Inverse folding.
């Protein structure tokens, strides 16, 4: 089939910044697996099932992208799915400091390489946490997330 990249994340919710990285990765690799992390130490706004469904709708036009969910070690999931490099978007130096440690640990644990892709300047300020915060206080998130995600946020937050 070719080289499959893995784009992991919590995606709570998926933003246009995430979709930019996923779309650009889809142009570089034969296939892309978007791995939605179920992290028991986090309390996400959306369930794993909801996040997977939102992502599937958002990437529906990308024929070489599929979405899955996982818990536990990323390197184990990558091996189970036959994914090659992990692709991570970086917004700023602060992202790099955390992500380089994760990349080095993933390489040590499973020999999995991580490729860093700089976020497009258009989305460099954007994060799921910020989107949720704006939505929580009744701010408009149109243009920051796909419309179906915006509607889900409004419904979930009762705004």
């Amino acid at each position: 089939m070719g080289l499959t990249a893995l784009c992991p994340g919590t995606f709570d919710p998926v933003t246009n910044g995430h979709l930019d990285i996923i779309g650009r990765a889809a142009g570089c690799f034969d296939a892309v697996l978007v791995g939605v992390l179920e992290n028991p130490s986090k309390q996400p706004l959306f369930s794993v099932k909801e996040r997977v469904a939102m992502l599937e709708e958002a990437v529906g036009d990308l024929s070489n992208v599929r979405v899955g969910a996982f818990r536990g070690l990323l390197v184990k999931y990558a091996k189970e799915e036959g994914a090659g490099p992990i692709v991570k978007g970086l917004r700023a130096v602060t992202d790099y400091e955390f992500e380089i440690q994760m990349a080095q640990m993933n390489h040590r644990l499973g020999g999995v390489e991580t490729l860093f892709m700089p976020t497009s300047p258009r989305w460099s300020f954007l994060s799921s946490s910020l989107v949720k915060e704006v939505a929580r206080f009744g701010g408009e998130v149109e243009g920051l997330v796909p419309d179906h995600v915006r509607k889900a946020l409004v419904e979930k937050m009762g705004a």
